[in-house]
Amino acid sequence: MKLIDLHCDTPGELFKSKGSLLCNQHHVDMRKTASFSSYCQMAALFCPAHLDDDSGFVYVKEMACHFRQEVERTENAVIATDLKSLAKGFEKGERVFCLTLEDARILGGDLSRIEALAALHLWFMTPLWRGESVIGGAHDTDTGLSEFGKEALARVLENGTVLDVSHASVRSFYDIAALSRAAERPIVATHSAARALCAHRRNLDNEQIRMIADMGGIIGINIYPVFLHDSGSADIQALIAHIRHIINVGGENVIALGTDFDGIASLPCGISSLADISLLATYMQRSGYPASLIDRLFYQNGLAFLKTHFR
Length: 311
Fold this sequence. Notes:
The protein is α/β, with parallel strands linked by helices.
């Protein structure tokens, strides 16, 4: 089985714990990738909420350096900085890690920081996380992007990074979509679920799902039970229900996985780490889903998207 996962928060967990990528107590480590013949992980750099924007900018750069060093010292693990290195590593069966950024508030109103972040070779940027920031409003607000946010994200798009609408307010979602459309770029939701099945404001409504699909984007299904069921508890069947709904609304090409491993406080019943995510394929097979669709979910749509929109 092959896997491309659009979002995890492992770099931050390793930075805090000073643990090993080879073996640790987090959701993701090299041992837990053993069941995958090919594996690519989009790994988010995230500033903890207690840090201010300026301190967070320094913190994220240090986290990126630490994670890069951890990958480099780990056998069969590589950091991909472009499509060629990603495709080569994925084909060879190496454990491929691609850096992304979650919460662009660390720009702190300073456009010059965009070039410093570009040097990290970011694939995706999730501009918002919670509340209102210098960038604009997240899902728990009714605010759109600020004027600084619009200018900053337009420059981010010029660097080739794709914008991620996960965590965005409804107004910010459409602001991000407008900026991306003007730049002739897609939008993605790297770790989200369907609001029709769970009313959490982090989730996507049907119009948003269709817009992401129409713009050539993809949606990575978040496995956090709080986003899967209004009760806050969920099992693998609840996860499959979100997958089915997003396919029904947006089509088979839009679906992917964006687990949010190491960034969530609980997991669906039956899944304890990355090592168990293959159980999702088993359940889908038992439910009558064809192998071709399961492959789309696990890696084919993600790989096709990356090959289309990156160099």
